[in-house]
Every structure is written in C-alpha cells, then in structure tokens.
Design goal:
Order of helices and strands: HHHHHHEEH
Strand content: under 5%
Shape: elongated
Number of strands: 2
Strand order of the largest sheet: 1-2
Distance between the termini: 45 Å
Helix content: 55-70%
Largest sheet: 2 strands, antiparallel
Structural class: mainly alpha
Length: 175
C-alpha cells in the first residue's frame, strides 16, 4: 500500500477531484504526476499547478473518466439501517458501561459488553458490504491503493475513540 497525499496541497487536490467526480484511477495518476513533477523540479505546488481547485477543474474538464455511478437507493437503505443500529448499539453499550452496567431500558437489558460487541459486528459487516463498491485511488506506479495521510489516519482513529470516551464519561456522570 502506498502512502496518500503527503501535504495539504495534495489533500486539497484529492478532495477537489473527488468533488468533481473524477475516477479514483485518474486521481491516482494525477497525484503521481504532481508528486513526480515536484520531486524533479523542486517547485512549489501552487506555482507549478495553480490552486488545487483550479487544477482539479482543468483535470476534470480534460478527462472522461468519472467515478463509478452512485450506489442505488435500495443498497444505501440496506446499508444505513444496520449501520445506524450498529452505531446505536455501540454507543449505548459504551454509555451503559460507563454507568456501571445500569440501564433504564427494562425492555432491553443486554449487558454493556454484549451491546458493544453486537454494535462492532454490525459496523464491521456494513464496512465489508460497502468496501467493494468504493472507487479507490490507486497509485499507477505501484498499482497499490493510496492510503490516507498520517494525519488523516490519526483523525480517523481519534475521532471515534473520543466520541466513545465522551459517551463513557456521560454514563459515569449519570451513575
């Protein structure tokens, strides 16, 4: 796997290209071209290509490769329900765990760890279901998928952990 955008220009460029429905394969090519040009020339990205948004406009206008069609509404509905249920179960389980396992829901008295496990399993199932439909960005030099930048990876992990920690603390405060 290849590291993703290495700076804010490349991250903004990837986002701008995604907003213009440029395919993941073409985005990988553009990213590789930008990285190679900057490494060889030593120029600043803004000087060589203009703003990421302007460069994305030029790329989108010059390519017919568009990202795969959007997912059908039935598929999205089939994914959203289990994702919402998984997220709710995970959040409720963490909240209950913070509250010492006590619950106000007499009609549904699953232990907190069972709720957390069920929520995590549902979310994992949804991720596996959606993954083949994602238009991935691939580096043409290595034929490997482009990963998120290190900062984006930290945010991707830290944000849900922070939310779960806040839910746990709210459970503790209500106990």
């Amino acid at each position: 796997m290849t590291d993703g955008p290495t700076n804010s220009y490349e991250t903004r460029l990837v986002l701008a290209l995604r907003h213009r429905d440029v395919s993941g394969g073409r985005i990988g090519e553009v990213l590789a071209e930008v990285q190679s040009h900057l490494a060889e020339s030593g120029e600043r990205a803004d000087d060589a290509f203009g703003s990421p948004e302007d460069y994305a406009d030029r790329v989108a206008a010059s390519t017919s490769e568009r990202s795969s069609p959007h997912l059908p509404a039935r598929f999205l509905a089939a994914v959203c329900l289990p994702a919402a249920a998984g997220g709710a179960a995970l959040a409720e389980g963490v909240h209950r765990l913070g509250a010492g396992g006590r619950t106000d829901l007499g009609w549904f008295a699953a232990p907190p760890l069972a709720m957390i496990g069920a929520g995590a399993l549902l979310l994992a199932a949804v991720a596996l279901l959606v993954r083949p439909h994602v238009d991935r960005i691939v580096d043409p030099r290595t034929r490997q998928p482009v990963l998120l930048s290190p900062r984006e990876r930290v945010v991707l992990v830290a944000l849900p952990v922070t939310i779960l920690a806040l839910l746990w603390l709210l459970g503790r405060a209500g106990a």
